[in-house]
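During the second half of the funding period, the structural biology subgroup turned its attention to how the target accommodates small molecules. The most pressing case was adenosine-3'-5'-diphosphate, which had performed well in the primary screen but for which no bound structure existed. We therefore specified the complex as follows and requested a full 3D prediction, including the ligand pose.
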Amino acid sequence: MSAELASRGGEGTRMFKFRGVFFMPEIYKPEILEQVEDFSVRDDDVFVVTYPKSGTTWMQNIIALMYMEGDVKQFENIVIAQKVPWLEVQLNVIQARPSPRQICSHLPYHLMPKEFRDKRSKVIYVMRNPKDTLVSFYYFYNMVKHLDTPKDFQDFLENFINGQVFIGSWFEHVRGWQENNHPNMLWLTYEEMKKDLPAVVRRISKFVGKHLTEEQLLAVVKHSSFKAMKASPTVNKENLDSVFDLTKGKFMRKGKVGDWKNHFTVAQSEWFDTIYHERMARLDLDFTWDMPQ
Ligand code: A3P
């Protein structure tokens, strides 16, 4: 077993490291992560893959609604993780599901199932400007009971850059998936979802081959707005009070592009840009966010 306990940040909380990646023991189990390797992938599986805080729940909501043809009544009271379950947590649930399955994952490429390398199942990879991802993650860290509350923003910034956070390095996550890009992958950004959600939903429906009428498509869009999702207790994870301290924040926090500008100092932003360009060099990334050249 390649899991080892690793103390992070001293006070109380511990994450364990599985093949170089940090996980919370309260939610993730090394034996399940090991089983993921031999998980039997089906050609018509659709995977939603993200680094944390990049718009995962948003995409889970869109995909679930899409397969329910926009009928929000069917799914109102079901928690989001039952609609699009987590590969790294809910293996039994997924194995028992009929095809086509919709599956979610935060796993870096190297922890995905072996069969996944056949590149036959579809993948939707959602990325977000890493600075906004970091800010969202900072607030998430403040409200998750199993994670050490960061000392301050600078402390969290350093941990993020060094990959000393849940799921590890953003840079390695994006790089690992980019280096294994293939025609069955759809790359989307949080920013383009904000800019034109109907267009993104149309692209997804074409990509997964799930035909929707215009009315159904507009229903998917309507019920995937920030306002609609924030109003849903099952989406806002209000049932998960064992995980979230809801006195410290809300899962559906701001839902904005560019909130990083309210958190990074000029020096922190410049430092981040330098690291970004060093680590993401030679990747064919065409991001819609305003990362300086
Ligand atoms: P903020 O903390 O910046 O508000 P994830 O699901 O990957 O954990 O990402 C959570 C982030 O996505 C949060 O960002 C959350 O508010 C945002 N989000 C979720 N649904 C959204 C929606 N419909 N529109 C815009 N942002 C959304």
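Two results from this model are relevant to the next phase. DSSP finds twelve helices and seven strands in the chain. The chain has a mean pLDDT of 89.
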